[in-house]
Automatic annotation (TrEMBL):
Protein name stated in the entry: NB-ARC domain-containing protein
Domain Disease resistance R13L4/SHOC-2-like LRR per the UniProt entry, residue ranges: 354-680
Record-level Gene Ontology MF annotations: ADP binding
Pfam families associated with the record: LRR_14 (PF23598), NB-ARC (PF00931), WHD_DRP (PF23559)
GO BP annotation list: defense response to bacterium; innate immune response-activating signaling pathway; plant-type hypersensitive response
InterPro entries linked: Apaf_helical, Disease_R_plants, LRR_dom_sf, LRR_R13L4/SHOC2-like, NB-ARC, P-loop_NTPase, WH-like_DNA-bd_sf, WHD_DRP
Domain Disease resistance protein winged helix: 235-306
Organism: Miscanthus lutarioriparius
UniProt domain NB-ARC: residue ranges: 1-146
Keyword terms of this UniProt record: Plant defense, Repeat
Length: 700
């Protein structure tokens, strides 16, 4: 049964028990799945941060099969196959699953008896609807989130019970209805009116199932400014992980976000996203270490409802070449291509398009692009990420209304792009771009410029990504909020301060003699919250003792050798408590430096990568009380870690990678009561036996 909570239950198992396995993967299986994509997702999850010398995204089916079998052969693994629709799908996916006798587990969720019948009776769990008591409890937690013990007022009790009864014990329906009522006036007349609307909804729309009818009522109660934002999320594939930043930039480009006072469009859009989450129309898939939404998902039933409404309102077309029922209409002005195995449907009028997004990277999908390269004069969003396009035609410069252009993984940027003077976001990540075309500084409305190319998939070298040379006049683009990844030059560093609206900056190839001027320019940036500074090589000294910012910095990454006074500089002493995430790479810190880092009391994430030269790390009581994630990687001399009781009290995740001299589990590891995810990779050979002793309670 849909909406009964199968995936939620399994997700709890995945989170709570995942650390007991060597590797794990969660793969959602859509009705229009491609086996190759399933295996790519599986391999990507299984490898995780343990980067090897291969990229799953570039492999074909044969290579994926070999690599998956090799990866799983000697490991205890946990794999979730979520929402499997047919037995045939399951049999095809299982071809790579190795029964290695190490206690591995594969968990499947399904709505169909056909798939469930494959499992032995002792291995099947049928999730039943909630009983009356539990249904009422779930509803009240959502409807009265700020009331002590979530108690329903007596005058609303009977009406509330009537509403809950219509949800048939389905958690998704209860959560949706409770979320709507939490935002409505708490009086009997309002709730009776809502109940009457619910009854009408349940007797209407025969094309919707029971849960979708209830969600449809939630949609009707959305404020007008949220409805387009909600429907837009249905253009992404089923179970797709939607990144916050990407979604917000798309909403802004579409014109869905209205300016309010002095708040930026990005801040307003993020508040819309939080409101959709609060109304249970979107689900938070990941938050970062300090609680900010990182990725969201749309429940498949909610997405089906959104597609239904999109069809009714002519909002968008979601085209899937393997599932013609997904084709919404020919008069839509927004098109998302999920798969394109059967070519381009002739009933799509390219001249009317406002939005074109492709998630399919096949050659067939490339043909779509050739048909819309210049026809749609009103196109505002063009996202061609991953398409195998060798050359972008110059006709792209005729799309004068374009606000967002994504050409990730493409190769050449035509000079005509400088005509796109309404462009707000340009993403050309992982592209073969050597330099910007002349005249690029004409794009005065640019807010987000994302340029980088990953050239080390193993993440083992100092330079993982390749930056691009700054173009003449870059410093005149004063509306820029995001700038990734630009090489430092003497001229650019001196004029960087002109970009006072920057919120996120990645600057690489910094030389020691640039540092004084760089600090001066950064001191003029009132909005900066995330900064990455990379030296030109691992031995170059970053002299950042004079680093200051007008407002607290939240995220800081420093890659390169740090001068001795950096961690005792005014920034770290006086404003370091604003830092929430700190990543230090190749810093060559001594043992005394950790004491200085401990003063950063609000850190939620700390990463040391080839950053520490000492042999011992000692975490004293009351150090790093808010830290939730700790990453220690490539520390060749570290041979002991000691954790005093009271240190790292909030730590939830630990990742230790390539610590060749660490033979024993950290002393005091048992003090970490909040820990739920632990990863050890490429450790000393003796570490495994130490871990086994720890597991059975004889050490640490």
């Amino acid at each position: 049964m849909a909406g009964i909570g199968k995936s939620t239950l399994v997700n709890n198992v995945y989170k709570n028990e995942g650390s007991n396995f060597d590797c794990r993967a969660w793969v959602s299986i859509s009705q229009s799945y491609k086996l190759e994509d399933v295996w790519k997702k599986m391999l990507t999850d299984l490898v995780g941060k343990d980067k090897k010398a291969f990229d799953p995204g570039t492999m074909d089916s044969a290579e994926l099969r070999v690599q998956l079998t090799k990866t799983l052969d000697k490991k205890r693994y946990l794999i979730i196959l979520d929402d499997v629709w047919t037995a045939d799908v399951l049999f095809r996916i299982k071809e790579v699953l190795v029964d290695n006798g190490l206690g591995s587990r594969v968990i499947i969720t399904t709505r169909t008896e056909e798939v469930a019948s494959i499992a032995e009776d002792s291995c099947k769990i049928k999730v039943e609807p909630l009983g009356d008591h539990d249904s009422w409890h779930v509803f009240c937690r959502k409807a009265f989130p700020k009331v002590e013990n979530h108690i329903c007022p007596p005058e609303l009790h009977q009406c509330g019970k009537n509403i809950v009864e219509k949800c048939d014990g389905l958690p998704l329906a209860l959560v949706a209805i409770g979320s709507v009522l939490s935002l409505r006036p708490k009086n009997v007349d309002e709730w009776k009116l809502f109940y009457d609307q619910l009854i009408w909804e349940l007797h209407s729309n025969e094309n919707l199932n029971h849960v979708e009818k209830i969600i449809n009522l939630s949609y009707k109660y959305l404020p007008d400014y949220l409805k387009n934002c909600f429907l837009y999320c249905a253009m992404f594939p089923e179970d797709y992980l939607i990144h916050r930043k990407r979604l917000i930039r798309l909403w802004i480009a579409e014109g869905f976000i209205e300016q309010k006072g002095t708040c930026s469009l990005e801040d307003i859009a993020e508040s819309y996203l939080r409101e959709l989450v609060r109304r249970s129309m979107l689900h938070v898939a990941h938050r970062n270490s300090f609680g900010r939404i990182k990725c969201i998902r749309m429940h498949d039933l909610v997405r089906e409802l959104a597609i239904f409404q999109s069809k009714r309102e002519g909002f968008s077309t979601t085209y899937d070449g393997n599932n013609e029922a997904m084709l919404v209409g020919s008069d839509s002005r927004r098109v998302a291509v999920l798969q394109c195995s059967k070519g381009i449907p002739s009933n799509i009028d390219a001249s009317r398009l406002r939005t074109f997004i492709t998630f399919d990277t096949s050659r067939a999908s490339s043909l779509w692009y050739s048909s819309i390269s210049s026809k749609p004069k009103y196109l505002t969003v063009l996202d061609l990420s991953g398409l195998p396009i060798e050359t972008i035609p110059s006709s792209i410069g005729e799309l004068f209304n374009l606000r967002l252009l994504c050409l990730d993984d493409t190769k050449v940027l035509p000079k005509s792009i400088t005509k796109l003077q309404n462009l707000q976001t340009l993403s050309i990540e992982n592209a073969q771009l050597v330099k910007f075309p002349e005249g690029f500084s004409k794009l005065k409305k640019l807010r987000h410029l994302l340029v980088s190319r990953l050239h080390d998939v193993t993440y083992n070298s100092f330079k993982v990504c390749e930056a691009i040379e700054p173009f003449k006049g870059l410093w005149s683009l004063i509306e820029l909020q995001t700038l990734w990844t630009i090489k430092a030059s003497e001229v650019f560093v001196a004029k960087l301060g002109n970009l006072s609206q920057l919120r996120s900056l990645i600057i690489s190839d910094v030389r020691s003699n640039y540092c004084a001027q760089l600090c001066g320019s950064l001191s003029k940036m009132c909005q900066l919250s995330a900064l990455i500074i990379e030296a030109c090589n691992e031995d170059e000294l970053l002299q950042l003792d004079d680093l200051t910012f007008p407002n607290p910095l939240q995220i800081l990454t420093l890659a390169g050798r740090l001068s001795e006074g950096t961690l005792t500089s005014p920034f770290f002493l006086n404003h370091g408590n604003g830092l929430l995430r700190l990543m230090l790479h190749y810093s060559q810190l001594s043992e005394s430096s950790v004491t200085h880092l401990s003063k950063l009391s609000n850190l939620t994430e700390l990463s040391l990568v080839r950053a520490y030269t000492g042999q011992e790390l000692y975490f004293q009581a009351d150090w790093f009380l808010n830290l939730k994630e700790l990453y220690l990687m490539n520390l060749p001399h570290l041979n002991q870690i000691r954790i005093q009781k009271g240190a790292l009290a909030s730590l939830e995740r630990v990742n230790m990678h390539c610590l060749p001299e660490l033979r024993e589990v950290p002393v005091g590891f048992r003090h970490l009561e909040s820990l739920n995810t632990v990863t050890f990779v490429d450790m000393h050979p003796d570490f495994a036996s130490s871990m086994q002793r720890y597991t059975y309670g004889t050490t640490a």
